[in-house]
Structures are given as C-alpha cells and as structure tokens.
Amino acid sequence: MNFQQLRSVREAARRGYNLTEVANVLFTSQPGVSRQIRELEEELGVEIFERNGKRLTGLTDPGRGILQIIERLLLEAENLRQASQEYAGERSGTLAVATTHTQARYVLPRVVQSFRKAFPEVRIALQQSAPEHIAEWVISGRADVGIATEGLSQFDELVSFPCYRWSHMIVVPQGHPLGDGEKVSLPQLAEYPLITYDVGFTGRGHIDDAFRERGISTDIVLTAMDSDVIQQYVSLGLGVGIVASMAAEHNLAPGLCAVKAAHLFAPNLTRLAVRRGAYLRSYVYDFILAFAPELKRQEIETALSA
Fold this sequence. Notes:
Blueprint: H1 3-14, H2 19-26, H3 30-44, E1 49-52, E2 55-59, H4 61-87, E3 93-99, H5 101-118, E4 122-128, H6 131-140, E5 145-148, E6 158-166, E7 168-173, H7 186-190, E8 194-197, H8 204-214, E9 220-224, H9 227-235, E10 240-244, H10 245-250, E11 256-260, E12 268-275, H11 282-291, H12 297-305
Parallel strand pairs: 3-4, 3-5, 8-9, 8-10
Antiparallel strand pairs: 1-2, 5-12, 6-12, 7-10, 7-11
Helix pairs in contact: 1-2, 1-3, 1-4, 2-3, 5-11
C-alpha cells in the first residue's frame, strides 16, 4: 500500500470516476491510475469501485467505508508535513485563501497588507469563486481558508466561524428618484429594472427572499459576480443596482449615489471556514485572527479537533 494508490482512489471519487481527469491531476497516465487502484483492491481483498467493463461507475459499499479511511490517512499525511515545517521553524510557505470577489476586493486588502508585513516569506494565493466552490476547495485541501457569506456552515467537513455582519445598499445615478433622501420601500424598488449579484453570490438569496415573501415580482435585467461591474451598468442607465455595503462605502463609482437598504433585506453574515481535522501553521492562525480579531486561537483549535 502506498500514497499514490490512496490518492488515485480519492481522486477517482472526486472526479466522477473519470480516470483521464485523475491522471491529469496526479501527473501520471490513465493506465497508471487503473493499475494503482487495482493493486490496492487486490491487496485489500475487496473491490472499491463498481465497474461497467473497464469503466468505473461508482463506489461499492465497502468502497464508501474505505474512502473515508483514505481521506483521513491523506489528511493526516498532509498534517504531518505541515507540522514538520512548523516545528523546524520554517516561516516560508503558501497561504491559499478561497473567497468571493467582494471579500477579496473590499475586505481582504487591509488584512493581506498587515499579514505580508508580519510574514514576508509567505506567498498568498487568492482564489475567487462561488461559495460552493470555495467549500470544495477547502475540503479538498486546495485552500487553507475559505471566506464567504453563504453556505460554508452547511458542510460537515468544514469548521466555520462567524466573522462580521453587513447589509446591502442601493446604488443609483445622481438625481434618480430613489436617491432623494426618502426611505425606499420594496414596492418602490421593484418599479425599476434591477442589477445585482448572480444567484449564490454576496447575499443574493436574501434579496430574492425579501421580494418573494412580500409577493412582489421583480425585473432583474442583469447579474454579475463583481460589484464594480454592477455599478458600471448602473452608470450606463440600465437599472438600479443592489450591492454589498462595503462596495458602496469603499468604492462608489463617480456619478452614483448610495441609498441605505438594511431595512429591506435580511443582514448577511460573513463566515470563515477551515477543514475539520486539519493542522494549521501558525501563520494561518495569524491570518485568521487578523481577519476576525474576536476569535481566539484556542477556540479554533478546539473546534478543529472536535
């Protein structure tokens, strides 16, 4: 039994049993992957995968149990590598942070700047995507830390911590009727074409819920992942924008004005997640505590080992 065999099994399950993709991920050949899997099955005396001819189609009942053990073994192997670097006093490495565009653009710059001053030898890799992809990257080990608004608490493989709350704001061109200083209502807002985030991004669910609960139909004419893009199209007169408060407060496009909307939509909670059972280098803890100062290292360590 060797780690290449274990990785072949794990990646086969992760990649939908597509051995070509597994081979690409592991930098080997498809026949090599097949051989590694078959040799492990022969050594264990059980079939891990169901097959249709030579093609893998799923996990057997024993395979599902074996995969869980393989995941733990590979996680502990990675933990051992991280711990050895930590105990050897190495201050270099890579911190991979998976997050949304809004967090990367408006919240993380201050944290990253202070972190770089404290750990100049640590390279930071920012990966931006939707919350479900962020969770997948942290679970798979592609990212050390995940930061997003929605969904991170729904994965058993992750430990997530609440960090801070924020609301949405309305952005309109200067002189627009909604920018006259009066408190905006949902029916008033729904009278205009709307521009906001893609489904699953930056609290979009709370926006949809607010209109649905009131039975108000909307005309969402354009969606985007990026607050700057939303503001650009508002500036062109395509509609009224709904963006995260930090985007409107820190980078409002010229010619636009921001209108409070906290009374219209439920507040959003940004969460930070790490993989359950993972060994975190000291600089990872420092990054987490810089992002969420109200957390305590002991609290994180206790949650990770639970």
